């Protein structure tokens, strides 16, 4: 585990604490499991759920339990292959938050699950349209991908669809984050060490970042 899921949860919760709206899209565990994991770091979303500013989109739960149903804060999608259903749900949620004049943060964890089940070209086309809609609404989104699981060409295509990319790695028991590029922003060069603590990801800035290996 390199910390990508933790980073996406932390990104979303930080936005909620600033008054943003949040949408967490889960493709490899149920919304209830994501909520529990967030709470283990002290990121309890129940207050925001009651306020209506936090929504989960569960693309996994109904694949393992067809009896699962929607709740006020959880929208179920039949499977990770149900692109049309997912698109409709996200359009409804984003449109709702946009009408409330809320800044929207979206975490998509993980794109790798889509690539495992669907044609990579279909996935990239779907994400191209989806990310375009997010940008139109000025939503800020984070998508996670397991590096090395997919052809390098797919990884590069997905990186080109994004405004930036961060790489999280774990080596010899140590964790590092490096910037592969951010639109209109200068990147810190090299690897920056970080830890996953009870409060989430904490950067360890001591001296200069290490050169990339």
Keywords:
globular; Rossmann fold; 4-stranded antiparallel β-sheet; 8 helices; 9 strands; 213 residues
What does this structure look like?
This protein has eight helices and nine strands. Helix 5 (83-99) packs parallel to helix 7 (120-136) and helix 7 (120-136) packs parallel to helix 8. The radius of gyration is 17 Å and the shape is globular. It is of the alpha/beta class and 213 residues long. It has a five-stranded parallel β-sheet, with helices on both faces. Strands 6-7-8-9 form a four-stranded antiparallel β-sheet, covered by helices on one side. The chain folds into two domains: 4-162, P-loop containing nucleotide triphosphate hydrolases (Rossmann fold), CATH 3.40.50.300; 164-213, no CATH class. The chain has helices at residues 4-17, 31-40, 46-51, 61-64, 83-99, 111-117, 120-136, 152-161; strands at residues 21-26, 54-58, 74-76, 104-109, 140-143, 164-171, 174-182, 192-197, 200-203. 31% of the residues are buried. The model has no long low-confidence stretch (mean pLDDT 94). Strand 8 and strand 9 form a beta hairpin. 40% of the residues lie in helices and 24% in strands. The longest helix has 17 residues, at 83-99.
